[in-house]
Design brief:
Blueprint: E1 4-8, H1 21-33, E2 38-41, E3 44-45, H2 52-64, E4 73-76, E5 79-81, E6 101-105, H3 113-125, E7 129-132, H4 146-151, E8 157-161, H5 168-179, E9 184-187, H6 200-208, H7 216-226
Parallel strand pairs: 1-2, 2-4, 3-5, 5-6, 6-7, 7-8, 8-9
Length: about 230
């Protein structure tokens, strides 16, 4: 069973996620009921709208509003939007708790050279590893070879939303990456209790079965243990 959610928007009144404390508590309770032991809080971070310092203060206030939650255990991070101004010396402060891993959201457009250059700055200048958020969402935008170019970058990790496991085309792409040995972890990307609720329950069949000799939940749990997140 998958034990960790690497991408969620459960913190109250911080971004377009949980609208209030009650909703946040209900979302976290739902994650716990679906077997999640650790949940990474990854509110949106946009360098064009916020500084890292301001973001961290707002995130801390939101965390304090759910401080009484005992399960799942909350880790912190951010969903960092990739733009031309995002690479700053303080950006590593947004890495997932206890790691050097940044969850990064690519722009919803064809892959461009400047995006690769920005990711290389994160990797080589900031010395952070990159976790690419909900990578299957870019299938309508990317040309043949674009995914391969991204995944050729060193130590890149792929994060897949559970909703992608419920649809044939995106599920087939995930199976291919698993078979190819791409490091894959999973996230609910939960924003609310309705159309974007946690769906690990619906994705459990895919996560618990072997695909090309890899059981996705076991592989993701092993990565989380390796990074000290479990």
């Amino acid at each position: 069973m998958l034990r960790i959610d690497f991408h969620s928007h459960c913190l109250p009144q911080l971004d377009d996620g949980a609208r209030d404390v009650e909703t946040a508590h209900a979302m976290l309770r739902m994650l716990s009921e679906q077997g999640i032991e650790r949940a990474v809080m990854t509110p949106h971070y946009y360098a064009a709208q916020d500084t890292v310092e301001q973001f961290l203060k707002r995130r801390q206030r939101a965390l304090e509003r759910v401080a009484n939650v005992t399960a799942p255990r909350l880790l912190t991070g951010a969903e960092v939007y990739l733009d031309r101004e995002v690479v700053t010396p303080d950006l590593p402060q947004l890495c997932i708790t206890g790691t050097d891993i940044l969850l990064m959201e690519m722009p919803f457009m064809p892959l461009a050279p400047w995006m690769i250059e920005a990711l290389e700055d994160v990797l080589y200048t900031l010395r952070c590893r990159v976790m690419l958020a909900h990578l299957t969402r870019y299938m309508p935008y990317y040309r043949s070879g674009d995914f391969e170019q991204l995944l050729s970058l060193p130590q890149v990790i792929v994060q897949i939303n559970t909703e992608a496991l419920l649809h044939r085309i995106s599920r087939r792409q995930v199976k291919k990456w698993l078979t190819d040995g791409v490091p894959i972890v999973f996230g609910s990307d939960a924003h609310n209790l309705t159309d974007r609720r946690p769906q690990f329950d619906k994705a459990r069949r895919f996560l618990s079965r072997s695909h090309g000799g890899v059981v996705p939940a076991d592989a993701a749990n092993a990565l989380a243990e390796q990074w000290g997140c479990l």
